Amino acid sequence: MSSVNFGIRASRTPTRQASREPVIGKTISVALLIIGAVAMIAPFLWMFTTSLRDAAQAYDLPPQWLPTEWDWTNYAGAVSGPVPILKNMLNSAIIAIAVSIGMIITAPMAGYAFARLQFPGKNSIFVGLLSSLMVPAQVTIIPLFLLMRTFGLLDNPLSLILPGITGALGVFLLRQFFLGLPQEIIDAARMDGANAWQTYRLIALPLAKNAVSTLGVITFLGSWNAYFAPSIFLNSTDTATLPLGLVLMLGPYGAGNVAQVMAATTIAIAPALVVFLVAQRWIIASLTQSAVKG
Does the pTM of the predicted model rise above 0.85? Predict the structure, then answer.
């Protein structure tokens, strides 16, 4: 009996060790995730606490994570200050929404054409389209500025909306999605008498709902946070977007009220955060769907 018991105990030891290894690995993974989350949240926490302290304490060294006095008047000052932050937020919202709508209309159509239709020069045109992704925006900004000046669109939201309603990246992403659709679905639609437009509108586009939603969110956030192009085409406080308004609040020499700038930045983050939280299920579904074949 003793030998039998000894054999049973010996057989249990490797099992216990093997069961501990996943627990240790899981603990390490959770610890790393917590460290990464804290590192990502820390700047936002410092921004929020700075918005609630006096401007003289904004540059205290070492920095204090919690203000000694909670000053909520910075938010009122940010809204009612000389820079019309609420107007700038409205300008950013109009431009971002218009650009996003244009992108989710044009990019899926172009992506489907490059993926499923046959026309002369398709591959050459697509290569040229992809080549534009390697050209920095700073290279094309001068010709674009001259074009907008010719059309009289400087200091006008249309100078940002018209160039942004389509883009090579959106076309490429949707083309890759439509290439992944089973050919049998397209053939079945054609056998039922559907033409190319009907196949796209009734079959392919509904299947691309998650990918189109993801593209719309990415486009909205990119337009909402854009600074370079608005700084070139817009030159007044009434037409400025939110990033420009924040820079104007800080002043030409960075001598503005830092606490009020942080308060305005906190307000500026809220719409983008809401958009992401609302649309995150579509983003996750798109990533999941793109990882599954067949």
Answer: no
* Secondary structure class of 70 (helix, strand, coil): coil
Residue 262 Cα to chain centre, angstroms: 21
Please say whether the beta carbons of 244 and 261 come within 8 A: no
| Distance from C-alpha of 233 to C-alpha of 106, rounded to nearest angstrom | 23
- Among 275, 163, 270, which Cα is nearest to 221's? 275
Backbone angles phi, psi at 99, to 5 degrees: -65, -40
Rg (CA), the chain: 27
Beta-carbon neighbour count of residue 242 at 10 Å? 29
Q: Per residue in 239-290, pLDDT tens? A: 999 999 888 888 776 667 888 888 888 888 888 788 777 777 766 666 665 5
Question: What type of residue sits at position 259?
Answer: A
Our measurement of the distance from residue 145's CA atom to the centroid of its chain's CA atoms, rounded to an integer in Å, reads 25
pLDDT tens track for 126-176: 999 888 888 888 889 999 999 999 999 999 999 999 999 988 999 998 998
Q: Give, for 22, the enclosing helix (H) or strand (E).
A: helix 2-50
Determine the Cα–Cα distance for residues 265 and 88; give it in Å rounded to an integer.
Answer: 12
**Interaxial angle between packed helices 258-290 and 85-116, expressed in degrees from 0 to 180 and rounded to the nearest 10:** 20
Which amino acid would we find at residue 266? T
pLDDT tens across 33-77, in order?
999 988 888 888 888 888 888 777 767 767 677 766 777 888 888
